[in-house]
Amino acid sequence: MEFIVDSVDKTLSLGKQLGKLVQPGDIICLNGDLGAGKTHLTKGIAEGLEIYDHITSPTFTIVNEYYGRLKLYHFDVYRVNDPDEISAIGFDEYIFSDGVSVIEWSKYIEELIPNNHLSITITKLPELGVNYRKITLTSNDVSYDYIKEIKL
């Protein structure tokens, strides 16, 4: 599925809808350039999970935990130099739990990501305007078919 958004509010709205639909154990992999909107999308997911804490990117801590309808494990692996580094923090315990894992920059640790995940790529569309983004959601697992319910 693809969505074209032209504002942070629409990115948050898309994330909120997704957050309302996610299930225990879901893994969401986010990729896109710096400033594409990965953390804004995560903020929306958190709101959909009924988490009202201030959501920040865990760039230096690797993972932040939040509590709502389901636990949210928000990873940012941009600064991870070696996949063993993320394994050392108990990564498997997070992603194979009943929480929802959102992993920014997941392409850096592809070998650690299970096949059954939702992949989201955010692409800047400067030719349309400074705030335009294409958000592409894909999965090869039927348990993520709920993304078909998302409307913009």
From TrEMBL:
<comment type="similarity">
    <text>Belongs to the TsaE family.</text>
</comment>
<dbReference type="Pfam" id="PF02367">
    <property type="entry name" value="TsaE"/>
</dbReference>
<dbReference type="InterPro" id="IPR003442">
    <property type="entry name" value="T6A_TsaE"/>
</dbReference>
<keyword id="KW-0963">Cytoplasm</keyword>
<keyword id="KW-0547">Nucleotide-binding</keyword>
<keyword id="KW-0067">ATP-binding</keyword>
<dbReference type="InterPro" id="IPR027417">
    <property type="entry name" value="P-loop_NTPase"/>
</dbReference>
<protein>
    <recommendedName>
        <fullName>tRNA threonylcarbamoyladenosine biosynthesis protein TsaE</fullName>
    </recommendedName>
</protein>
<keyword id="KW-0460">Magnesium</keyword>
<keyword id="KW-0479">Metal-binding</keyword>
<keyword id="KW-0819">tRNA processing</keyword>
